[in-house]
Every structure is written in structure tokens, then in C-alpha cells.
């Protein structure tokens, strides 16, 4: 993902928000195979199950009578192999002919733990790991998604967005992007997407997050009454521990800072990137990139200022008392709280609730965490990707024995990445084999990318 700062687009005008009843939204997991409630627009009238008006927030004037007559499962089946512009489910994601016919050059896969990157030798993939649950955090990854879509636009490409059925996860990301890009309200954008794909319906949690997104991307420049926003960099998913995203804190205060991490503090006319003494450079770099995203997509006015633990200027601490925190208490942080935090010994700040995230990041940086694994039923030389590690478990035909051999191929990009010299590939592969129920005592031989020919020669005998 590109971390470059972008120039802001034309300012967007603030738009009104209309809250929706919880009963009007489908349940979690609605975009998985099985029973699925009749799709309704957020503001649709419940009379007869048909929308009564095409005005924003009051329903749609779309003829879906043919869909309603097919039943719930038939609705999914009807759209299952339909490529709704650039939005669909897994059935189309695995159909190369349909993707080629629609001019697809890039793919955003929202369900990496379910759907593999089917055509990664031909298309450019970006994979996320989203659960279709109201508690899933999509807010923290929206600006990464916007960056990806903008990169594709600049390259003159066309992106295909998919989840399992193209109902909730993928449609939510497309709605969010169009809200920002086209300067439209949630209601209007939802209607537009649903007109293209009749089964589109974000789950309740996603809808609430999209309404909050509307307030952030359509807000006028921050006013003196604006609240304090604070984010900490953390993995979005255990499946991609080095995809670090800014997670908004419910109770922002100096007491939430941790010496192991990087934080973004957003106040009136200023945005600070606070870097702890024990923060890894990978996290610091991503925090700076995330700050640029906030500037671009929320039209923040003012400079990004990097402050390091133990060297904070007084204006940084004063910023916490100048605005209200973004919390339910709506109470200003006291001077005593700020003084106490500012006098903490540098390097000693630890928040126990962050421990699991930091452990996940550190293991990933040192090669101790395996990313997602995709099983290859067939193998060709084109599958050797410089950004991948491949494990081959095979019989030892050279010695005509039933004993299996394990070959590990490490791509050049992986080999040259940070801290890779500290990775014991023998040990890591043994751990992987154990988790897969195979003997971790099998013979293991590691090949680097420049040794590819040696590996291929052995595989020809296997």
C-alpha cells in the first residue's frame, strides 16, 4: 500500500445524517451461503415491504419484483455469477473470463481466510481479513482501502471488490469510498450501490460505522468545539499482523500512551504522531503514513508534527486540555492527569490491554508468525513469487523411500526484508508442520530464490 501523502481533492460539503432503526438492517453473516432476509433499503417503508419514496433516506424506486418472487436463496443465486459493475462475490472472483470481460486489473479480496488470490500471476491483489460481524472494525482500514482505489485510478486500472456473496463486507467498503469520492451522503450512496447490486446490504455494525465515516469525511474543517481524537497503531487482523492500522481510542488521554507503540493525536489545527522509546521503526513508519491519510480524507488543516517520548514540547501536553475527549463522559482531561503523564519516566509506559497486539507485531517482524497459507493443488514455476515463502512436502523418490522430504523456498523480497536474517527457517517450518499434524522431525532443506534451479531439479525427481 502506498504511504505517500496525496494532495487534497476538492472540498466536500457537510451533509445531514439520518439515524436508522436497528430492525431495518440485516443480521451478521448475512452475506454467507444460506438463509438471508429480504433486502431492504435503510429508509424503506415497512408497508408491504416496498419502498414508498425515492428521496434520500426514504427508500428506493427500484423494480426488484422479479427478485422477490425467487425467494431468499434464489436472490443470492441470481447475483452469484453476476458482476455488478466492479462488485460481487466469490463465484465471479474465481471466473477469469468474467473478470477479463469486465477489464479487471486489480482485486480487493475482503475475505482472505475464505477466498484465495485466484489469479495473482495476472492480477494485482490486495487482501483483507474481514468477518461479517457487527463488531468487526472496518473504520480503521477504510483509508487504506481509499488509497488502494486511488492508486488503481491513477494507473488507469479497474478494481474488482468481493467478499463471499457480495452483500455486506465488500459493499460497505465501496459505499464508504463513494461517499468520500463523490461527496454523497450514506443514503444516496447506498441507493446507488443497491441499484447496481440488488442484494447489497451492510450489516448493522457496518452501517453504524459508515454513518460515523460520513461525519468524518464530510465534516467542514475542525471547529473550536471539536473533540480530541486519538489513535493507536495496531494489527487489523491476526492473519496479517504487519498490516498496521490506526484504531481510535474510546477514552483518549495521555494515560493511554504506551512506550512500545506509536499514536496519532488529532486536535484542533494540529495532528501529532507520538513515538514511544521502544516503538519499532515499522510501526513508526505506518503511523506517519496513517497521519497523512487523516489529513487527506478528513481535510485536516495544519501540520503533522512528530514528537518522541521524553522530548515532547509543552504544546503537545497542552493539546490534551484544549479540547473535549471523544468519549461518553464529555469531560475535559484534568491538569493533574496531564502533569502526571508528562512526568512519567520515558520508556516505562505500559498498557496491559495492548500486550497481545504488541506480541503479535514483534513475532511477525522477527519471522515468528506465519501469515495466511494457501494450499496449491498444482505447481508451476510461475507460482514462485518473490514476496512468498513456499513449503513443499514430498516423498524422497531419489532414494526410492517412503520417507517425506520438506523443501522451503524463500522469495527474494522476503529474504531482504527487515530482521529476516534472524529467522530460523528450519524451526519455523517445523512449527508449521506440527500445526498441520505432520511430523516436525521430517528432513527440511531451505532454498533461497537464487537457488531456485536446484530446488526445481529436486522437485522433478519427487
TrEMBL record:
Region described as Disordered: spans on this chain: 23-68
What domain of life?
Eukaryota
Query: Which keywords label this protein?
Result: Hydrolase, Protein phosphatase
Q: Domain named Tyrosine-protein phosphatase: which ranges?
A: 75-219
Q: Care to name a GO molecular-function term for this sequence?
A: phosphoprotein phosphatase activity
Biased-composition ranges, Basic and acidic residues, are 23-34, 58-68
Q: List, for all copies, the residue spans of the domain called Tyrosine specific protein phosphatases.
A: 136-197
Q: What is this protein called?
A: Protein-tyrosine-phosphatase MKP1
In its UniProt entry, the species of origin is given as Zea mays (Maize)
